Amino acid sequence: MARAEWSSAMIPAAFDYIAASSVDEAIEMLQKHGDQAKLLAGGHSLLPLMKLRLAAPGVLVDLGKIEDLRYIRDAGDHLAIGSMTTHYMLESSALVQERVPLLSHAAGMVGDMQVRNRGTIGGSLAHADPASDLPSIVTVLRAGIVARGPRGERLIPADGFFQNTWTSTLYPEEVVTEIRVPYASGRTSSTYQKFRQRAADWAIVGVAVSLTLDNGSVRDAGVVLTNVGSTPVRATAVEEALRGGPSTREALGAAAERAADGLNPPGELKGSPEYKLHLARILTLRALETALSG
Ligand SMILES: Cc1cc2nc3c(=O)[nH]c(=O)nc-3n(C[C@H](O)[C@H](O)[C@H](O)COP(=O)(O)OP(=O)(O)OC[C@H]3O[C@@H](n4cnc5c(N)ncnc54)[C@H](O)[C@@H]3O)c2cc1C
User: Contacts by 213-218 with C-beta closer than 8 Å and gap 24+?
Assistant: First the structure.
């Protein structure tokens, strides 16, 4: 009996499979099958949930055959990234490394090579897992997320996209098609630091930092934390402490002390709330120092 329960928990419930040949067809299928349908991208978050029977969609609409969703382009003042672009493509792209190095650096820290080869940026953002890395990265970079649905296309700022654990502002019939990452103006230095659960590489806590430096002072600062709440959390107290101040180690240290201000992280097997608050301060200091020396 116990054995049968265990084995059924490793096999998803039966589902129909549709390989969409275009975004329009995918939207049509989402409309047609309603609550029963789920989009499939890299499958590295959805399929584990289905195997554990935490999700049981009746229809999977695969985006994998839509080559038009797999690209990285210089669009003048921003980088345009198709939603089916894999973590590995972001990690290894010379264009991303040159124009938005933080994104390439962080994509290289997602899971292992198998995960990076299949997992996509669109899937990672749409899944809205608080422990995922790329939601914090697109938030700190003030990226926009393009979603297309039956009523047309809209551009959603990353800052308002993530609503709660596994919940975003996407409507059920929308497909994420593109991510737009604005180019920084001025001298920017950035990094992502995460303290990870070695077995699976998920962040216990992560911090993304982007500093715009100007003649020994910090002109602008972005600091966003991973896995200390139900969404990426902007560390506004740290940003305010840094903005307009000197870019000295002392000033960064004082600002990093404020990384846990107002946080109330949930405890979990990987770490207690107190441990996460400690990591938030330590990793923010480490990230600020790394960005300053970069
Ligand atoms: C062992 C392991 C380790 C991992 N480690 C990490 C890690 O360290 N850091 C990290 O950030 N992630 C990690 N991941 C998750 C990985 O990054 C996934 O790739 C990612 O979370 C989901 O992307 P996907 O393309 O696989 O999406 P899928 O699993 O295919 O889909 C996820 C969800 O998004 C929806 N969706 C997908 N694409 C779209 C779209 N274009 N528009 C609208 N909705 C869409 C799906 O319907 C589904 O609900 C790990 C996964 C595994 C299995």
Answer: 213/186, 213/187, 213/188, 213/189, 213/247, 213/292, 214/186, 214/187, 216/246, 216/247, 217/244, 217/245, 217/246, 217/247, 218/242, 218/243, 218/244, 218/245, 218/246, 218/247, 218/251
